[in-house]
Amino acid sequence: MAATGSQSLKCKVELHNHLDGALRAETVIDLARSKGIELPVDNARQFKEFVSCANETDRSLKKFLEPFAVFIPVISGDPHALRRCAIEFCEDQANQGVLYTEARYAPGLLTSGTSNNDATEGDKLTSEQVLLTIVDGLEEGCRRYGIKVKSILCCLRGCPDSATETIELCKKYHRKGVVGIDIEGNELEDSIKPGDEFCKAFQEAKRYGIHRTVHAGEAGTAENIRQSLDWLSAERIGHGYQLVEDESLLERVKKEQIHLEVCPTSSILTGSCSSFDNHPAKRLIISYLDPKLSPFVNYLSLLKLRHYFGSSTRFINEGLNFSINSDDSLCCNSGVADEYKLVYNKWGYGASVLTRATFNAARSSFLPEEEKQQLINDLEEIYGMKVIINYKATDIKLS
């Protein structure tokens, strides 16, 4: 994803972005050349096409994840590459207009790589060394580009040992750059079982005050979302599109204000959703139309916007707590600013929805409360308003 200029207005919050899926194609090509690693293509444009599933007719999460096996070895086990990618991540996020983001990654996946055309094993780092290197790079990037980035550490479905290692790292570096724990991987192939190592790790995280998000209801069913809430005490759900299959669960998510990390483009490329037109997230964002104007009409007025988008903003808010995210910007060839444009242009939702998504993300971030309140205050100043979002009452109050 090319830089778009360092002076972009920073007014967005992104919660679901995989650091290792947000590498610059140019950086992957450059590092591969310097290490003598042969890639399937040899320039950035072709590489972006290679890793994207946009032209695939048979789309699936498994297919979407396949290119990671090509570019992850280029950066793994290399502290200089990891630090460079972390700094570039911050610059790219700043250029996308992001004020705060949570970068997620699995340290254990980045411990070793390849060093030549024969793909022999190169230097190996420990998971802790990977974490410290990335956190150092993120801190440097934040200083350079005026944003804030924290880390969410990922366990790997199908690898129970990763749960034990990840929770120990989360505990050791809680509030030292790390704010949460996650589980990533293919739901269809590797399910969570009651009392398994993942459940133990997440319950330990809850006891320790570490925040929890889980990839669920993307390729898998709504039942995976229920299990994430019941067994893993998830506070946020990554994707969660299959929530619309289960009305009782939908009501529960609404009542408990579980945050939904919506990633529009990746949901199509992974085959989780069939099209933008019939995307379940449209219901999750805005559901029932009503003749009564939403309080967001006042939102628009306060923002001094000059247009109003008709029936799409005439709604009663279903009370769902969601944000808009890019997921894997390299593989999706789409940053969070592009995702906001997609929601605006393809789904027809105006600035009210986009602004709400930003404040939802800020309030559902895993920052410590004092830092979270400061983030909200900063956003209120940027947007020129005082916003009180009362989720329990499912309304918006402005003052």
From TrEMBL:
Residues 12-285, 314-380 form the Adenosine deaminase domain. One of its GO terms (cellular component) is external side of plasma membrane. Keywords: Hydrolase, Metal-binding, Zinc. GO terms for biological process: adenosine catabolic process; hypoxanthine salvage; inosine biosynthetic process; negative regulation of adenosine receptor signaling pathway. The keyword Transport does not apply. Its EC number is 3.5.4.4. The keyword Methyltransferase does not apply. Belongs to the metallo-dependent hydrolases superfamily. Adenosine and AMP deaminases family. This is adenosine deaminase. It comes from Trichoplax adhaerens. GO terms for molecular function: adenosine deaminase activity; metal ion binding. Pfam families: A_deaminase (PF00962). Transmembrane segments: none annotated. It comes from the Eukaryota. Its cofactor is Zn(2+).
